[in-house]
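Lecture 7 notes: from sequence to structure.

We start with a single chain of 209 residues. Read the sequence below before looking at the structure.
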Amino acid sequence: MDKARRVFNLMIEKGCAPNIVTYSTMINGYCKAKRLDEAMELFHEISQKGPIPGTVTYNTLMQGHIEEALELFQAMRNRGLGLDIVPYTILIDGLCKAGHIEVAKELFHQLSDNGLKPDVYAYCIMINGLCKEGLPDEAYRMFGSMGDNDCLPNSCCYNVMIRGFLQNSYTSKATQLLTEMVGKGFSADIFTATLFMDLIVHSNKSILL
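Now the structure, written as C-alpha coordinates:
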Protein backbone atom coordinates (compact mmCIF):
# COMPACT_ATOMS: atom_id res chain seq x y z
CA MET A 1 0.00 0.00 0.00
CA ASP A 2 2.90 2.37 0.66
CA LYS A 3 4.08 2.05 -2.94
CA ALA A 4 0.54 2.58 -4.19
CA ARG A 5 0.24 5.70 -2.03
CA ARG A 6 3.49 7.10 -3.45
CA VAL A 7 2.14 6.66 -6.97
CA PHE A 8 -1.15 8.21 -5.87
CA ASN A 9 0.64 11.26 -4.41
CA LEU A 10 2.81 11.54 -7.52
CA MET A 11 -0.33 11.73 -9.67
CA ILE A 12 -1.52 14.70 -7.63
CA GLU A 13 1.90 16.40 -7.78
CA LYS A 14 1.89 16.05 -11.58
CA GLY A 15 -1.53 17.69 -11.78
CA CYS A 16 -3.39 14.47 -12.57
CA ALA A 17 -6.38 14.64 -10.22
CA PRO A 18 -7.48 11.16 -9.06
CA ASN A 19 -11.02 10.21 -10.03
CA ILE A 20 -13.54 8.32 -7.91
CA VAL A 21 -12.28 4.95 -9.21
CA THR A 22 -8.72 5.74 -8.08
CA TYR A 23 -9.89 6.90 -4.66
CA SER A 24 -12.11 3.84 -4.24
CA THR A 25 -9.25 1.52 -5.20
CA MET A 26 -6.97 3.14 -2.64
CA ILE A 27 -9.64 3.05 0.06
CA ASN A 28 -10.34 -0.61 -0.67
CA GLY A 29 -6.63 -1.40 -0.40
CA TYR A 30 -6.33 0.33 2.95
CA CYS A 31 -9.41 -1.46 4.27
CA LYS A 32 -8.05 -4.86 3.22
CA ALA A 33 -4.74 -3.98 4.90
CA LYS A 34 -6.67 -3.07 8.09
CA ARG A 35 -5.35 0.50 7.82
CA LEU A 36 -8.72 2.08 8.45
CA ASP A 37 -7.43 5.44 9.67
CA GLU A 38 -5.76 6.03 6.32
CA ALA A 39 -8.87 4.82 4.50
CA MET A 40 -10.98 7.32 6.43
CA GLU A 41 -8.44 10.06 5.76
CA LEU A 42 -8.83 9.52 2.01
CA PHE A 43 -12.59 9.39 2.36
CA HIS A 44 -12.66 12.78 4.11
CA GLU A 45 -10.38 14.12 1.38
CA ILE A 46 -12.94 13.06 -1.23
CA SER A 47 -15.75 14.67 0.73
CA GLN A 48 -13.89 17.98 0.94
CA LYS A 49 -12.35 18.17 -2.52
CA GLY A 50 -14.51 15.93 -4.66
CA PRO A 51 -15.19 13.77 -6.56
CA ILE A 52 -18.45 12.81 -4.85
CA PRO A 53 -18.11 9.34 -3.30
CA GLY A 54 -20.57 6.79 -4.61
CA THR A 55 -22.26 3.79 -3.07
CA VAL A 56 -19.32 1.46 -3.78
CA THR A 57 -16.93 3.70 -1.85
CA TYR A 58 -19.29 3.88 1.11
CA ASN A 59 -19.87 0.12 1.07
CA THR A 60 -16.12 -0.53 1.10
CA LEU A 61 -15.59 1.67 4.15
CA MET A 62 -18.62 0.29 5.96
CA GLN A 63 -16.88 -3.06 6.18
CA GLY A 64 -14.41 -1.50 8.66
CA HIS A 65 -15.35 -0.45 12.19
CA ILE A 66 -19.02 -0.47 13.16
CA GLU A 67 -18.97 3.06 14.61
CA GLU A 68 -17.67 4.51 11.34
CA ALA A 69 -20.10 2.28 9.43
CA LEU A 70 -23.08 3.81 11.23
CA GLU A 71 -21.81 7.31 10.46
CA LEU A 72 -21.22 6.43 6.81
CA PHE A 73 -24.66 4.87 6.51
CA GLN A 74 -26.23 8.09 7.77
CA ALA A 75 -24.02 10.09 5.41
CA MET A 76 -25.29 8.03 2.49
CA ARG A 77 -28.85 8.85 3.51
CA ASN A 78 -28.05 12.53 3.91
CA ARG A 79 -26.49 12.67 0.44
CA GLY A 80 -29.63 11.17 -1.02
CA LEU A 81 -27.83 8.16 -2.44
CA GLY A 82 -30.17 5.40 -3.52
CA LEU A 83 -29.69 2.68 -0.93
CA ASP A 84 -30.15 -0.89 -2.09
CA ILE A 85 -29.92 -4.03 0.02
CA VAL A 86 -26.09 -4.07 0.03
CA PRO A 87 -25.28 -1.25 2.51
CA TYR A 88 -28.09 -2.42 4.79
CA THR A 89 -26.71 -5.97 4.78
CA ILE A 90 -23.13 -4.82 5.42
CA LEU A 91 -24.26 -2.74 8.39
CA ILE A 92 -26.54 -5.46 9.79
CA ASP A 93 -23.66 -7.94 9.55
CA GLY A 94 -21.33 -5.57 11.40
CA LEU A 95 -23.91 -4.89 14.09
CA CYS A 96 -24.51 -8.60 14.65
CA LYS A 97 -20.79 -9.34 14.88
CA ALA A 98 -20.38 -6.49 17.38
CA GLY A 99 -23.22 -7.87 19.52
CA HIS A 100 -25.61 -4.98 18.79
CA ILE A 101 -28.47 -7.33 17.95
CA GLU A 102 -31.29 -4.93 18.86
CA VAL A 103 -29.97 -2.24 16.52
CA ALA A 104 -29.49 -4.88 13.82
CA LYS A 105 -33.10 -6.01 14.24
CA GLU A 106 -34.34 -2.43 13.99
CA LEU A 107 -32.38 -1.86 10.79
CA PHE A 108 -33.58 -5.18 9.36
CA HIS A 109 -37.20 -4.19 9.92
CA GLN A 110 -36.55 -0.80 8.30
CA LEU A 111 -35.95 -2.55 4.99
CA SER A 112 -39.65 -2.88 4.21
CA ASP A 113 -40.24 0.75 5.27
CA ASN A 114 -37.76 1.77 2.58
CA GLY A 115 -39.28 -0.38 -0.15
CA LEU A 116 -36.67 -3.13 0.11
CA LYS A 117 -36.99 -6.84 0.74
CA PRO A 118 -34.35 -8.80 2.66
CA ASP A 119 -32.58 -11.40 0.56
CA VAL A 120 -31.35 -14.83 1.64
CA TYR A 121 -28.00 -13.41 2.71
CA ALA A 122 -29.62 -10.78 4.96
CA TYR A 123 -31.82 -13.44 6.56
CA CYS A 124 -28.83 -15.74 7.17
CA ILE A 125 -26.95 -12.91 8.88
CA MET A 126 -29.87 -12.07 11.16
CA ILE A 127 -30.65 -15.71 11.99
CA ASN A 128 -27.01 -16.34 12.83
CA GLY A 129 -26.82 -13.16 14.91
CA LEU A 130 -29.93 -14.02 16.90
CA CYS A 131 -28.69 -17.55 17.60
CA LYS A 132 -25.31 -16.27 18.78
CA GLU A 133 -27.14 -13.98 21.21
CA GLY A 134 -29.00 -16.98 22.64
CA LEU A 135 -32.28 -16.23 20.84
CA PRO A 136 -32.90 -19.40 18.76
CA ASP A 137 -36.70 -19.18 19.12
CA GLU A 138 -36.75 -15.69 17.65
CA ALA A 139 -34.32 -16.81 14.96
CA TYR A 140 -36.62 -19.70 14.03
CA ARG A 141 -39.61 -17.37 13.80
CA MET A 142 -37.62 -15.23 11.38
CA PHE A 143 -36.58 -18.38 9.48
CA GLY A 144 -40.25 -19.35 9.18
CA SER A 145 -41.27 -15.88 7.98
CA MET A 146 -38.91 -15.80 5.01
CA GLY A 147 -41.69 -16.81 2.64
CA ASP A 148 -43.57 -13.62 3.55
CA ASN A 149 -40.92 -11.75 1.57
CA ASP A 150 -40.90 -14.27 -1.29
CA CYS A 151 -37.54 -15.52 -0.03
CA LEU A 152 -37.30 -19.26 0.53
CA PRO A 153 -34.58 -20.75 2.75
CA ASN A 154 -31.65 -22.22 0.87
CA SER A 155 -28.98 -24.65 2.06
CA CYS A 156 -27.06 -21.85 3.80
CA CYS A 157 -30.10 -20.72 5.81
CA TYR A 158 -30.95 -24.26 6.87
CA ASN A 159 -27.40 -24.91 8.01
CA VAL A 160 -27.21 -21.62 9.92
CA MET A 161 -30.51 -22.33 11.68
CA ILE A 162 -29.57 -25.92 12.51
CA ARG A 163 -26.21 -24.82 13.92
CA GLY A 164 -28.02 -22.18 15.95
CA PHE A 165 -30.26 -24.85 17.47
CA LEU A 166 -27.29 -27.10 18.23
CA GLN A 167 -25.24 -24.30 19.78
CA ASN A 168 -28.18 -23.48 22.05
CA SER A 169 -28.78 -27.14 23.00
CA TYR A 170 -32.00 -27.43 20.96
CA THR A 171 -30.93 -30.89 19.79
CA SER A 172 -34.40 -32.22 18.98
CA LYS A 173 -35.34 -29.18 16.89
CA ALA A 174 -32.00 -29.33 15.11
CA THR A 175 -32.57 -32.97 14.20
CA GLN A 176 -36.10 -32.25 12.95
CA LEU A 177 -34.86 -29.37 10.81
CA LEU A 178 -32.02 -31.52 9.45
CA THR A 179 -34.59 -34.09 8.33
CA GLU A 180 -36.64 -31.34 6.67
CA MET A 181 -33.55 -29.93 4.96
CA VAL A 182 -32.49 -33.30 3.56
CA GLY A 183 -36.06 -33.90 2.38
CA LYS A 184 -35.79 -30.72 0.31
CA GLY A 185 -32.61 -31.89 -1.35
CA PHE A 186 -30.12 -29.88 0.72
CA SER A 187 -27.10 -31.27 2.56
CA ALA A 188 -25.45 -30.46 5.86
CA ASP A 189 -22.23 -28.52 5.37
CA ILE A 190 -18.99 -29.49 7.11
CA PHE A 191 -19.63 -27.21 10.09
CA THR A 192 -23.13 -28.56 10.74
CA ALA A 193 -21.99 -32.16 10.25
CA THR A 194 -19.11 -31.63 12.68
CA LEU A 195 -21.47 -30.33 15.38
CA PHE A 196 -23.75 -33.33 14.95
CA MET A 197 -20.84 -35.75 15.06
CA ASP A 198 -19.52 -34.08 18.21
CA LEU A 199 -22.92 -34.50 19.88
CA ILE A 200 -23.12 -38.14 18.85
CA VAL A 201 -19.62 -38.89 20.17
CA HIS A 202 -20.36 -37.26 23.52
CA SER A 203 -23.82 -38.75 24.01
CA ASN A 204 -24.82 -42.24 25.14
CA LYS A 205 -26.89 -42.87 22.04
CA SER A 206 -27.26 -41.45 18.59
CA ILE A 207 -29.31 -38.25 18.49
CA LEU A 208 -30.45 -39.30 15.06
CA LEU A 209 -32.38 -42.33 16.32
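Residues 84-209 form a domain with the Serine Threonine Protein Phosphatase 5, Tetratricopeptide repeat fold (CATH 1.25.40.10). Keep this in mind for problem set 3.
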